[in-house]
Amino acid sequence: MGLFSFLTDDSRTQDSLTPQAVTRLETLAHEEAAVLLTSIPIYLRQATQTIEALLFDPYRGIYIFECCDWRYETLKGVTAERPRADDKRVRDITLESAYTFISRKFNEILHTDPCEINSFLIFEHLNSEEFERLDASFHALLPRDRLIFADESIEQSTSKLHAVTNRRDTPLSDSLILGALFFHLQIPADNLHDDRPLLSKEQSDFMQSDLPPLASLSGPYGSGKSTLVLLKAILYLLQKKAKTVLIIAATQAACDLLKKELLEIVEYAIIDIELTSIRILTPEQLIAQHYQRLYKKESFSFAKITPKMLSHHYFAAEIIFCDDSHLLEPEFIAYLRHLQRKHALCLVRREPSGAAGDYSLTHSFRTPPSLLKLCDDPQNTSITEGVQKVQGNPYMYTLLKLQKLLEHYGYSDLLIIVPHAQFALKLLDEINSYYGTISSLYQAHEGLLVQELDRILIATVSEIAHLQRPVVVLVCEGTYDQERFCHALTRASKEIYLIQNRDTHEEDSQNSSRVAGNPTA
């Protein structure tokens, strides 16, 4: 599509989508069962290209649109011509650069152009008859079949879209096409799931929102909260809304898991950001850094929040995201609120706060509904769908259950959650004595590099933040705190087994049941 030498920076105002254009495109999207995205940026390395409007039709590919506020009174009697390459006054028509940028992104991510890309201009103040009366030079530079006029019906516009491409027999994947272009609209793949589903509307609303100074993100376990925090942190840097972002995670291992996911997102998206601008720390590490800055002394991981720390300003970051804030001490949350009095704070929790600035997610992609009900009411005996318990010696029944599970799963697929460290040590000895050295203690206060992740992991219920495996065996000795119990229930992506310590010893084959989910994120 050509450029216009008379449309210089000093004679033309910036065009943008009008409400009428948006309404027209929304109707087109509805008619075609297509996805419409407006004013959305694509990021590639250090460059950004904002797409004014993009319509994705799974059966026809991508259409991109630019809205032009051109009127017949302005254009009559004018001759259009392509500009010289050295004419610095000319503002590029967005469609040309958008087409090129989309093609580059596809080839960088997918190493191919997976679908057709067609571009159209929308004239909201120029009708088809007026266009015919313009100088012939306009007709030569602007193909009529790529123009949508103000007096066109939806049927006429649809016909133009259909005319430039053939309908496919099988639909394109929206997660493949849109996910490749817009990393911030997609849940990344991980070691448990190969798919990359697009964000739900609730998730997308959070990503597109300008967060207030005090915000919260709530939702059940498995709703994607931690991933959204990482995506949002990256966007803050790309959109230059912040130069420093801090993410708080409960344990060192949880921090390392988030760092690993962050690196995978950046690598897949092919974007250049200053990774050191996103710090991921435990509460103890943040307190220790503040302590050292204030007291000019060597910091210790066991440093406590002192009255002096609450009376002096300490800059930690322009925005802090506190993941799993409901699992942390109230004193620490109050400390964060103090730190961020002049900056932004987002608390990530399971239950909604009910306050202004709360973004709520309602759907868990990982946890079956029956387990979510059990989370809310652990003592409810009427919840039986997919939930049964083995009652007896927990060590013996864990060994019996492992024997069956190892027929179908590898060591690295299995996680055993136990109530406390003493229990974990005894169970570790029992398993390794019976099967050989196939299990290891998960030390959440240590980094991932020292964890033996190729083995069956045994973790205490207080050390499982961000830890997930396909199969979980949850050993209950007495009663867990409800929040900890729910946290443990939702660590599995495929199956979970509950083993409850009782004096009775019933047959494992009669009492053990499998709780299966069909997660998508």
Structure description:
The chain is an alpha/beta fold and 521 residues long. It is 33% helix and 19% strand. It has helices at residues 19-32, 72-75, 94-109, 128-133, 136-141, 154-163, 174-181, 201-208, 225-238, 252-269, 283-295, 330-339, 369-376, 394-405, 421-435, 482-489, 508-511, and strands at 35-44, 47-57, 61-68, 117-123, 147-148, 214-218, 245-248, 278-281, 319-322, 344-349, 358-360, 389-392, 414-418, 439-441, 456-460, 469-476, 492-501, 515-516. Strands 12, 13, 14, 15, 16, 17 and 18 form a 7-stranded mixed β-sheet that branches. Strand 2 (47-57) and strand 3 (61-68) form a beta hairpin. Helix 9 crosses helix 10 (252-269) and helix 13 (369-376) packs antiparallel against helix 16. It is elongated. The relative contact order is 0.10.
Radius of gyration over all CA atoms, rounded = 28 Å
Structural class: alpha/beta
Could you report the average pLDDT, rounded to the nearest whole number? 86
* Secondary structure: number of strands: 18
Give the N-terminus to C-terminus distance in angstroms: 41 Å
Low-confidence stretches: 1-14, 88-92, 503-521
Shape: elongated
Specify the number of helices. Answer: 17
> Helical content, roughly?
25-40%
In this structure, how is the largest beta sheet organized? 7 strands, mixed
